[in-house]
Amino acid sequence: MRIPILKLHNYLLISIQIDLDDQTAIQFQEDLLSKIHENGASGVVIDLTSVDIIDSFIAKVLGDVVTMSDLMGAKVVLTGIQPAVAMTLIDLGIHLQDVPTALDLEQGLIKLRQELEE
Amino acid sequence: MDFQSCVNIKKEWDIVGARQLGRDIARKIGFGTVDQARIATAISELARNIYLYAGTGKVCFEALEEIDHKGIAIIAMDNGPGIQEISQVMEDGFSTSGGLGAGLPGVKRLMDEFDIHSEEGKGTEIRVVKWLR
Q1: β pairing state of B57-65 and B4-9
Q2: How many CA atoms lie within 13 A of A78 on its CB side?
Q3: How far is A2 from A23, CA to CA, in rounded Å?
Q4: Where do the H-state alpha helices sit in chain A?
Q5: Residue A1 falls within a domain, yes or no?
Q6: Which A residues 36-65 touch B at CB under 8 Å?
Q7: Are B63 and B52 in contact (CB under 8 A)?
Q8: Which of A33, A108, B108, B112 could connect to A45 by a Cys-Cys bridge, CB 3.0–4.6 Å?
């Protein structure tokens, strides 16, 4: 299964709408980095509104993809993390402290613009 | 116990299958969305441990019904190599797989009860319970 990555000007938009298995998550990591490389994207929004479970593995993949994109010069913002997911992550002991987040897609795009000073 | 069902863990996709079934059972018992997420996440961690460290095993669910409270028990069983130092795997940040090391201590925090039995060379059985509040 592949997660679609949409291009909007110099941003990439992703909305994850499936129950993520490990393989799909890893595949997504690779796909996103190649897309950033191909398009020279400066910002990425990953919307998690439809994701109802983030376990330690998926959290690691998401945290890593933020760091990896940053190394390539693209800022990533995670948006739409559900209340139940936020509570579960803290119970698990996962804080994702250096990961930029926003309430929804719209706020995410505003945050990206601020970070990139556009 | 009035109901038990199991998911065999053989391939990576079974981790998703186990947590989806567990979540369905939790919803039927009456758990709210936050506890459903906690239960499904705990199942995901337990099933992944089986897949990573034992290769195969199974995750079973039991709907618990006592006079004054209801709950769900999740039992993760494998015949893998077992765990040498249980106290070590219960430490936050300890990992042999390059993961976050949040697995078992995280599962313990997500659930209300946590029991682990492991014998080297024979396997591991972990039973966790969440009660409906």
Answers
A1: antiparallel
A2: 24
A3: 10
A4: 22-39, 56-72, 83-92, 105-116
A5: no
A6: 52-57, 59-60
A7: no
A8: A108
Task: Supply the pLDDT for residue B1.
Answer: 45
Of B110, B21, B85, B99, nearest to B59 by C-alpha is B21
Residue numbers of the domain that contains B126: 4-131
Q: Domain of B97: which CATH number? A: 3.30.565.10
Q: What sections of chain B are H helices per DSSP?
A: 13-29, 33-49, 86-89, 103-110
Task: Choose from A57, A82, A87, A96 for mutation: most chain B CBs within 10 A.
Answer: A57
Q: Which amino acid is at A5?
A: I
Domain count, chain B: 1
CATH number of the domain within which A55 lies:
3.30.750.24
Cα separation, B24 vs B27, in Å, equals 5
pTM comes to: 0.90
Q: Is the Cβ pair A55, B45 closer than 8 Å?
A: yes
The pLDDT score that the predictor gives to residue A25 is 94
Q: What is the pLDDT of residues A45-59, one digit of tens each?
A: 999 999 999 999 999
Q: What is the ipTM of this complex?
A: 0.88
Percent of chain B with pLDDT over 90: 70
The distance in angstroms from the start CA to the end CA of chain A is 34
Number of domains in chain A: 1
Q: B2: helix, coil or strand?
A: coil
Q: Which domain holds residue A25?
A: 6-116
